[in-house]
Amino acid sequence: MEQNRVTIEYDRYLTPLDVLGIAFGCTVGWGAFVMPGTTFLPVAGPLGSLIALAIGMLVILVIGMNFSFLMQHRPGTGGVYAYTKHAFGRDHAFLCAWFLCLSYLTVVFLNATSLFSVIRAVFGSRLQIGYNYYNIGGNIIFMGEVGASIVALAIIGLLFINAKPLLQKLHTVLTILLVLCVAVVAALCLPHFRLGDLQAAFGTQGGNKVHAIFSIVVLAPWAFVGFEVISLETAHFDFKVSRSRWIVGISILLSGVIYMLLTMVSICAAPDGYGSWQAYIADLDRLNGADAIPTFYAAKSIIGPFGLVLMAVAAIASILTCMIAGYRATARILSTMAEDRILSKKFNETTNSIVFIMLISIVLSVFGRTALECFIDLTAFGAIVGFGYTSASAWKLARKLGNRKTMATGALGTVVSAVFAVAQLIPKLTVVETMGTEAFLVLSLWCLLGFMFYLRIVNRSSAADFSNPAASSVAIFALLLYSVLMWLGKRLMAAENIQTVRDTLVFEGSLMLLVIFIGLCVMMYIQHVARQKHKALHRELARAAQKPHNDPPSGPDAG
Predict the structure, then answer these.
(1) Residue 151: inside a domain
(2) Model pTM?
(3) Bridge pairing between strands 133-136 and 139-142
(4) Residues 299, 310: contact at Cβ < 8 Å?
């Protein structure tokens, strides 16, 4: 008797151009326009930045090959979660999805708050009107600017719920617009680029050249996060999944080229009073408006007002494409975890997931971009976790299939991801601070929240659903402990006098102990539950083995 099989039919509405738009559009965001001036050039200069970006692009291409391999062999809507679950079990899949979800969620609200910067660059103080402002941590935030972010978040969320096909076409159009605007600006500005600048001082911060290049290379997970979003959509491709290999490669290469072009554009012009790009870049903190963003200033100075419009359109397009793709990826991760009974089944409904993302992003956006900068570091950390697990999963599957090429790329991607993680978590390994003080606190709290959900799924699952829950809970607790200790340590190092040190030990130290105590209690309880479930499973297996098996009767008297 044949068993009935339930086959899920997915709408196949994504064309190759749509998929390319998703991969590229989520990779290039507001950071591509500001990081050349705030990070790349000060650390490594023009030549060092271009070398570092090229190396980072090649490394991400290797990781992209691992994604492409798994997309072909594990098609569906689970993405990294499904890859990790098949390779290492449900507990590792949860760890991967939990941190990757944080990465995608931060993409949404961080890009929404980036609209503040675009508005100030183009309109100056025109939206900073009346008394409709408030102060958070010393940062003045105006309701007119916050309103722009809230409107953008609400419109995208509502379109996702009510007009998803229209939103997908809008995403593709915005991606094309982003590429065209950057291409036009680069074509008109780069003739003013002087090759002699490549041989000028390596960076405004000095230091060893190799160290400077390494400091930019380790930012690659942040710079290129987003291309892998399409792995969550393979079930909706209207073409062969094998073609995604080229789409992944093109999106990464195109993103790298955009970063390089904008870096070179940044030093094509400098305001009056600055004799070199070094002097200009070093003084950005004292400037306002378009002058404080070298890519915007170069376009305005060389092309004129139309150049500023082109750059603003490109920046807004990049922000919106990142927000759309971030919505999509976060909702898909939430629904995947809901299907696997990690989250409430309510997240199986796309509407519920979108509303959840929209409300959280709107609430966070009122704090302003500056107050949320700690989440930038967490975007990179979540990407590193996803890249590492995907590469390890690709290696394991390739080994089973005898695919030596993917075994090599999988091993390389895993090792590189581990290096990225070490550079992210250990201070002073790079010129750039890869994890700020507040970021360590948020990471520890995210680990603590993850513990709560992990406890929930351990309680609701059988022992066979997990490969090693004890080891997984120890890993989460170790990261929680390290993060909260680093947070307190950095707070103490920033103390200006002994009284501040004492106050920090009293208040922040108490919070640290509370976080550690709760995490330790949850870890011990998880391990207790896991042991009880395994004991019950072993007892059932033992009873089944001891139960006598009577042979069925045979012969003419059987019946």
Answers:
(1) yes
(2) 0.88
(3) antiparallel
(4) yes
